[in-house]
Design a protein that fits this description.
27% helix; two-stranded antiparallel sheet; 4 helices; single chain; alpha+beta; 26% strand; 168 residues; 6-stranded antiparallel β-sheet
């Protein structure tokens, strides 16, 4: 039996139908990445870095047999399959964005993959959903829990519960 790893993923969408995009991403993750063991509620947040429509954000914990680079390839494939187009201009509207936040307690620094995600401590819209599913997870480089990172986060962007939560 293959060894499994716990990974935490952040999902976001700001192109309609946002909730359906998240639902499709969750289904695709289950199909091609691994077993989702925990799933946050959905939050509505303002765009970060540009003004192109509000996001729906959530986080999932996944047990996967994929190696980190395989995980990145799988999540990139899911994004492409769900219609994400990367222009190379950085922050932009997207049908789905899947970020790898953590992979076990590993620290990985490769040209196309950095784990833990380098901006997690700066983004309330990532920390809040992650705190729903793993408040006591310790960030491997800061030594702080997700709850502590959320309490210390300087990001003042509003993170509100999504009132039309249709996710299973």
């Amino acid at each position: 039996m293959a060894q499994t790893h716990t990974t935490y993923l952040s999902l976001g969408s700001n192109i309609p139908d946002r909730a359906a995009n998240l639902s499709r991403a969750v289904a695709a993750i289950t199909e091609s990445v691994g077993t989702i063991t925990r799933q946050s509620t959905i939050y509505e947040t303002q765009s970060w870095g540009y003004t192109d429509g509000d996001y729906l954000n959530m986080a999932v914990a996944v047990e996967t047999a994929l190696a980190p680079q395989e995980l990145l390839a799988a999540t990139s494939r899911i994004e492409a399959d769900l219609g994400r187009v990367r222009s190379g201009n950085g922050y932009e509207a997207r049908t789905i964005d899947i970020d790898i936040l953590f992979y076990d307690n590993e620290t990985i620094d490769l040209p196309l993959l950095t784990i833990p995600h380098p901006k997690i401590a700066l983004r309330r819209f990532v920390l809040q959903p992650t705190a729903d599913i793993a408040p006591d997870f310790v960030h491997p480089t800061t030594g702080k829990t997700i709850r502590e990172l959320l309490e210390e986060c300087d990001d003042k962007g509003e993170v509100a519960l999504y009132s039309h939560d249709t996710m299973p």
